[in-house]
Amino acid sequence: MKITIELYGRLKQTFGKDTLVWQTEADNPKDIYLELCKHHQSADESNFIKPIIDDTFCDWTTTLDETHVLGFLPPASGG
User: Fold this and answer.
1) Residue 63 domain-assigned?
2) What is the CATH number of the domain that holds 39?
3) Of 7, 70, 74, 75, which shows the fewest CB atoms inside 10 Å?
4) Can you spell out the DSSP letters for 33-56?
């Protein structure tokens, strides 16, 4: 399936864009995130990142389909 992925914060730099259309056989945020990490030779930081489906926080194992927009939100810092 092709899924739209939105990247926030420092993940924009890690994966090179703020929005991707990703071709995958995976059907959950965790597997898709791990594919992105492998493709971009990036470390798995899923312990810190929150997955989002259609602007709502979700579990890493939530089932996706092509109608969903998947997002990954890293921790924010600031003062």
Assistant:
1) yes
2) 3.10.20.30
3) 75
4) HHHHHHHTT----TTT-EEEETTE
